[in-house]
C-alpha cells in the first residue's frame, strides 16, 4: 500500500509520521515544491524508524510526481495556512491554484488514486477537485469532520471531567468557524446522552469552543494546528488502506442527501478500500437541519469564488 502526502509542511509531516508509526503502509512518499524539503523530512522521519518500531519506507520528492506513481491514496496538504485573525476562506486565492495543479499531477501518475483533501478552505477545495478532475465521487474525500469531532470530544471530556475514551460525538457541516454543526443531542458518555451531565448553557459553550477550535490554536501557535489534523488524516488513510469500514464525518459530494445537491460538506460516511463506500443520512432535529442549511449556504458562497 503506497501513500503519497503532498506538502511536507506541518500537517503533511505530522500525517506521514502518524501513518508510519501505525505501520500499515509499505511506502509513504512526501512531495513538496520547496527544494530538498520533503527529502529532509523523509530522512529525519526514517531515522525515527528503529526508535519507534516501524518498517514503512518513507521517501521525499521535490515536485517529481513520477516518484508518486501507483499510489493508492494521496493526501493534499499543500498550500498556505491561516495566520491569527484570518478565516480559512481567505486562503482560497492561493490554495485553489495549488490544489488544482497538485490533483492533476497526482492523477497523471496514479489514475486510480483516492484523494484526501486537507488544504483550506477544505470543503471548497474538495469541490474544486471534483469539478476539475471528474474522477468518481467515492475517490474524493475532504478531511475536516474527523478533526472537528476529535476537538468536540476533547471539549466534552473537559466539561464533564471525564476520560476522552468515555466520549462519543460527531461534528458535521462545513469546516469553518461558523459552519460546523456539533451534534450535541447525539453525543454520549458510555451510551448516556451528555445532556444528562451538562447544563444546556455548558453544552452550548462546548459547541462554541469546538467551532472555533482551529482559530483558538492558530491564535496560540501563530499558524494553524498540525498534530490533531495529522492524526485525523492518518486514521482516515488507515480506514481505507485496511478496509476498516469505519465511520467518519467527511466532506463529500452530496446528491440529495441531507436535502443538499452539488456541494461538498461534512456528513458521516463509511471509509473502506474504495474510499467513501456509503453516505449515512442520519435524521436531524429541526434545529440541526436549519444549522446544516445555513452551513451549506456558507460553503456554496465560498464555492462561488472559484474560477471553474
Ligand atoms: N482540513 C483541515 O482540517 C486542516 C487542518 C490543518 C491545516 N489545514 C490546511 O492544510 C494546509 C497546510 O497547512 P500546514 O500547516 O501544513 O502549512 P505549511 O506551510 O506548514 O505547509 C504547506 C506546505 O505546502 C508546500 N507547497 C506549497 N505549494 C505547493 C505545491 N504546489 N506543491 C507541493 N507543495 C506545495 C509548501 O512548500 C509547504 O511546505 C493549509 O491550507 C491549512 O489551512 C487543514
Ligand atoms: O484552523 C485552521 O485554519 C486549520 C485547520 O482547518 C484546523 O481546523 O486546525
From TrEMBL:
The EC designation for this entry is 1.1.1.37
Question: Which residues does the UniProt record annotate as the domain Lactate/malate dehydrogenase N-terminal?
Answer: 1-142
The text of the family note is:
Belongs to the LDH/MDH superfamily. MDH type 3 family.
**Catalytic reactions on record:** (S)-malate + NAD(+) = oxaloacetate + NADH + H(+)
Keywords, in A-Z order? NAD, Oxidoreductase, Tricarboxylic acid cycle
| Pfam families assigned to the protein according to its UniProt record, in alphabetical order | Ldh_1_C, Ldh_1_N
EC category name: oxidoreductase
Provide the binding site for NAD(+): 7-12, 32, 95, 118-120
Q: Which residues bind substrate?
A: 82, 88, 120, 151
InterPro entries reported for this sequence: L-lactate/malate_DH, Lactate/malate_DH_C, Lactate/malate_DH_N, Lactate_DH/Glyco_Ohase_4_C, Malate_DH_type3, NAD(P)-bd_dom_sf
Biological processes annotated in GO: lactate metabolic process; tricarboxylic acid cycle
Report domain Lactate/malate dehydrogenase C-terminal positions.
147-299
Name the NCBIfam families on file: PRK06223.1 (NF004863)
Q: What is this protein called?
A: Malate dehydrogenase
**Organism in which the protein naturally occurs:** Maribacter aquivivus
GO terms (molecular function) for this protein are: L-lactate dehydrogenase (NAD+) activity; L-malate dehydrogenase (NAD+) activity
What residues make up the catalytic site? 175
For whether the record's keyword set contains Ribosomal protein, the answer is no
Task: Name the gene that codes for it.
Answer: mdh
Amino acid at each position: 500500500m503506497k501513500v503519497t502526502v503532498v506538502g511536507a509542511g506541518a500537517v503533511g509531516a505530522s500525517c506521514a509520521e502518524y501513518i508510519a508509526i501505525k505501520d500499515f503502509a509499505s511506502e509513504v512518499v512526501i512531495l513538496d515544491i520547496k527544494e530538498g524539503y520533503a527529502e529532509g523530512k523523509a530522512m529525519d522521519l526514517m531515522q525515527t524508524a528503529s526508535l519507534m518500531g516501524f518498517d514503512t519506507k518513507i521517501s521525499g520528492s521535490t515536485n517529481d510526481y513520477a516518484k508518486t506513481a501507483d499510489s493508492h491514496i494521496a493526501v493534499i496538504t499543500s498550500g498556505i495556512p491561516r495566520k491569527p485573525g484570518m478565516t480559512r476562506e481567505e486562503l482560497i486565492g492561493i490554495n485553489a491554484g495549488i490544489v488544482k495543479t497538485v490533483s492533476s499531477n497526482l492523477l497523471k501518475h496514479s489514475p486510480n488514486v483516492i484523494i484526501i483533501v486537507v488544504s483550506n478552505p477544505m470543503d471548497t477545495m474538495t469541490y474544486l477537485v471534483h469539478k476539475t478532475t471528474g474522477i468518481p465521487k467515492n475517490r474524493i474525500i475532504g478531511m475536516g469532520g474527523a478533526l472537528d469531532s476529535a476537538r468536540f470530544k476533547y471539549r466534552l471530556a473537559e466539561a464533564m471531567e471525564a476520560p476522552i475514551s468515555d466520549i462519543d460525538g460527531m461534528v458535521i457541516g462545513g469546516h469553518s468557524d461558523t459552519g460546523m454543526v456539533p451534534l450535541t443531542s447525539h453525543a454520549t458518555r458510555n451510551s448516556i446522552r451528555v445532556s444528562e451531565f451538562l447544563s444546556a448553557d455548558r453544552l452550548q459553550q462546548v459547541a462554541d469552543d469546538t467551532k472555533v477550535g482551529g482559530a483558538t490554536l492558530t491564535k496560540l501557535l501563530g499558524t494553524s494546528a498540525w498534530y490533531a489534523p495529522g492524526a485525523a488524516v492518518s486514521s482516515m488513510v488507515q480506514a481505507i488502506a485496511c478496509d476498516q469500514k469505519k465511520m467518519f464525518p467527511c466532506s463529500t459530494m452530496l446528491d440529495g442527501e441531507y436535502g443538499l445537491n452539488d456541494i461538498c460538506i461534512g456528513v458521516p460516511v463509511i471509509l473502506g478500500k474504495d474510499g467513501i463506500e456509503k453516505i449515512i443520512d442520519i435524521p436531524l432535529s429541526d434545529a440541526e437541519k436549519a444549522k446544516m442549511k445555513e452551513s451549506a449556504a456558507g460553503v456554496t458562497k465560498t464555492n462561488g469564488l472559484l474560477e471553474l
